[in-house]
Amino acid sequence: MKLQTAGIHHITAFAGSPQENVDFYAGILGLRLVKRTINFDAPEVYHLYFGDENGSPGTIITFFPFTGSRRGKIGGGQVGITTYVVPPGALGFWEERLKAFGISLTKTSRFGEELLHFRDNEGLQIELVEREAGANSTWSFGGVPVEKAIKGFGGAVLYSVDAKQTMRVLEEVLGLSKVAEDEFYARFQALGEIGNIIDVPLKDMEWGIGGAGTVHHIAWRAKDFDEHEQWQQRVGQSGFSPTQIIDRQYFNAIYFREAGGILFEIATDPPGFARDEEAEMLGEKLMLPSWFEPVRSQIEANLDPIEVRELEEGMKS
């Protein structure tokens, strides 16, 4: 049976100030901080996860925020634009809200869909698009009502240094279907209801530079651990060198860099973020894997304090 991903599992990016990162994604966009932990490979750096109420696959954006980080340059070999989906009729609310917080935006369109385009506090490119598909959010925070709230990812725009090769991987390795093409972009669709639309500019991009305001990697969904092992074999048989399966506490992961320069991850839907804390308490406490617990006090002392707080309009994050 042909393997096909349901779409985006999560997107991970770099940021600067942890508090400004929380203010933007929780305070302005109204997402839930579902997990506060550390970069397991660099424990002096937070790893913050924002998503829907449960941190469902297809809703999760994660950050490595570190005060003083250099700003990156968006370009080839990266996710260029992260697209969020909101309910039909919600774009007007978001246009007013973003302007009220002093965020510049532009209106654009792609494949007949109207988009609000703006940047986060570090310059990461974000879009909002209205679609019927996907369940409405059940999380309300900071003046964002559930009927207007972000559902999760609509998809992403991949900036490739070799667009033909990236598109080949989307179709032949990940099992997405090409559904449209115009003068500038090709559009691909995965099986899921959200995080399922991927656009690729037809023109190859110049290499970007990693740093705050850029995406580190995009992760694709595997429905369970058995399928995840099949994905590892599939990636290897397709000419790439996937990593070993890595336990990331809330999902298992493999990584490989596709020929267009973008770091791809494939992550399991289970076990999810309620693995180590109650669902009602997600994101309220710094959670550490067992091997870091003996040095918790040292780790906490090295991290800037953060809080999820409601922001007043006119207050930039």
UniProtKB/TrEMBL annotation:
| Residue intervals of the VOC domain | 7-131, 152-269
Family matches, as SUPFAM superfamilies? Glyoxalase/Bleomycin resistance protein/Dihydroxybiphenyl dioxygenase
- InterPro entries, from UniProt? Extradiol_RC_dioxygenase, Glyas_Bleomycin-R_OHBP_Dase, Glyas_Fos-R_dOase_dom, VOC_core
Q: Does the keyword Oxidoreductase apply?
A: yes
Q: What UniProt keywords apply to this chain's record, in alphabetical order? A: Dioxygenase, Oxidoreductase
Select a single GO molecular function from the record's annotations and give it: dioxygenase activity
Q: What is this protein called?
A: Ring-cleaving dioxygenase
Species annotation: Paenibacillus lentus
Ranked from the top, the taxonomy reads: Bacteria, Bacillati, Bacillota, Bacilli, Bacillales
